[in-house]
Amino acid sequence: MGSGAQYLLAVYILGHRAEPPVGTNLVAETLDRSPAAVTEAFQRLETEGLVTYEPYAGVRLTDAGRERAADLHETYVTVSWFFRSVLDLDDYEAEAMEVAGLVSPDVAARLAATLPVETESSDTGEAPTTLAEPTATGDAPQDAEDADR
Question: Is the bond preceding 134 in cis, omega lying within 30 degrees of 0?
Answer without folding.
Answer: no
